[in-house]
Amino acid sequence: MDQNEKIVSLSFVVAALIVWFAMGRFFQEMMIVASIRDPLWNTFMPLSRILGLAVGGGVLVYLFKATRPHDFAMDVVAELRKVTFPTFDEVRAATIVTIILVIVITSLLGVFDYLWSGVTSLIYKA
Question: Which of 87, 76, 19 lies closest to 49, judged by CA?
Fold first, then answer.
């Protein structure tokens, strides 16, 4: 198993865990809304978590068995390997430029707001 395959497998497992958690909460809320009493509520694995686990497990099996999601994820990982990230100096320079531009534009908007409020107060007083 190459490095890209490991990354894809790990991302599929993380996605299934997220689905398990989200669907467990969803089933828990739906049981509350529908006034269904969970017989396993005070246990480690209430019924809502078991249902969420079933959905998350189904998602995991689907992601590992279907070829389209696997091929897509492999393509994404391969493309991300080609990305060149900026150096610390480039990030610092871009951050400084951004902060300076925000200060300049904010100052201009403040001046225009001050002038416009003066003009409108003259108009409304007349």
Answer: 19
